[in-house]
Design a protein that fits this description.
Length: 135
């Protein structure tokens, strides 16, 4: 019976090490993603200045070309904003129709949770839009 107990203890120890490894990995990932990466200043990768810098580096643009491309990118961004203004009401209508269809499938217990989830998603979307406009 001693060999059987030894095997169980060894198996338990291996299992414990595995669980601790998973836990430590999860905590490490959480710390890196929420603390370390969040603390680094983040450049907006799609900004016009970044694009002009990339074009200048890769295409060896002269200052006049840089200025003209900056203007083209600004005009393009303004046209994108106009499109968003026109299409946002349609997107919102489609979004609401989809949400209504989901609501019909949910139980009375699930609906308040769904509404809370939607509220958080909407807040997150508004925050991202505000950040994008602030660029």
């Amino acid at each position: 019976m001693d060999a059987s107990q030894g095997n169980r203890k060894a198996l338990l120890l291996v299992f414990l090490v595995l669980v601790l490894g998973i836990a430590l990995g999860s905590v490490g990932t959480y710390v890196v993603t929420t603390r370390v990466l969040a603390a680094r200043p983040q450049a907006s990768p799609g900004s016009a200045a970044d694009r002009v810098a990339m074009y200048t580096r890769d295409l060896n643009l002269n200052p006049d070309q840089q200025k003209q491309i900056q203007q083209i990118l600004s005009d393009t961004r303004a046209r994108y904003a106009e499109l968003h203004d026109k299409l946002d009401p349609e997107y919102e209508q489609v979004r609401q129709q989809g949400r209504d269809r989901v609501r019909q499938l949910l139980t009375a217990e699930q609906r308040p949770k769904f509404e809370d989830l939607l509220r958080r998603m909407d807040e997150d979307r508004r925050r991202r839009q505000a950040e994008a406009q602030g660029r």
